[in-house]
Specification:
Blueprint (H helix, E strand, L loop, with lengths): L14 E5 L5 E6 L9 E2 L8 H17 L17 H8 L12 H16 L1
Antiparallel strand pairs: 1-2, 2-3
Helix pairs in contact: 2-3
Length: 120
C-alpha cells in the first residue's frame, strides 16, 4: 500500500475513504480538518467483486491524495499575529461616521490587510 502524505492544511496523516458525489465516485478526506482530494471514478460493475473494486478505489484515492501540492518548508507555517502597537494603530483610527455608525467593513479590512502583510 502507498504511504499517505500528510494533509497540506493541518499536517495530519489520518484519512477516511468515502463515496463522492455519487456511488461511482470515491475520495479521501482528512480526519482532522476535512480537506479532501479530487474524486476518482470507481468500478461498479463488470469483472471482479465489490470488495476488490473498493480496495482499488482506496488505492486510487490515496494516489490522488498524494498528488496535491507538497508542503513548503518543514511543516505548517507559523502564524504571525498583530503586535500590541499594530492593534492600537488599527483601533485608534476613527471607525464611526458622523451619525455614529460603526464601519465594520473598514475595520475588518484594516485587520485583514495588516495580517496579509505579515503572513505572505
Amino acid at each position: 500500500m502507498t504511504a499517505i502524505k500528510p494533509c497540506p492544511f493541518c499536517g495530519d496523516v489520518g484519512i477516511t475513504f468515502s463515496e463522492g458525489s455519487t456511488f461511482r465516485w470515491y475520495l479521501a478526506s482528512c480526519n482532522s480538518c476535512g480537506a479532501s482530494c479530487g474524486e476518482i471514478r470507481t468500478q461498479t460493475m463488470g469483472d471482479g467483486t465489490q470488495a476488490r473494486w473498493k480496495a482499488q478505489a482506496e488505492l486510487d484515492a490515496t494516489a490522488e491524495w498524494n498528488t496535491r501540492a507538497e508542503l513548503v518548508g518543514s511543516g505548517p507555517r507559523t502564524w504571525v499575529g498583530l503586535t500590541d502597537m499594530e492593534r492600537y494603530a488599527i483601533t485608534s483610527l476613527k471607525w464611526w461616521d458622523w451619525e455614529d455608525a460603526f464601519d465594520i467593513d473598514g475595520f475588518t479590512r484594516a485587520i485583514e490587510t495588516k495580517l496579509k502583510e505579515k503572513n505572505t
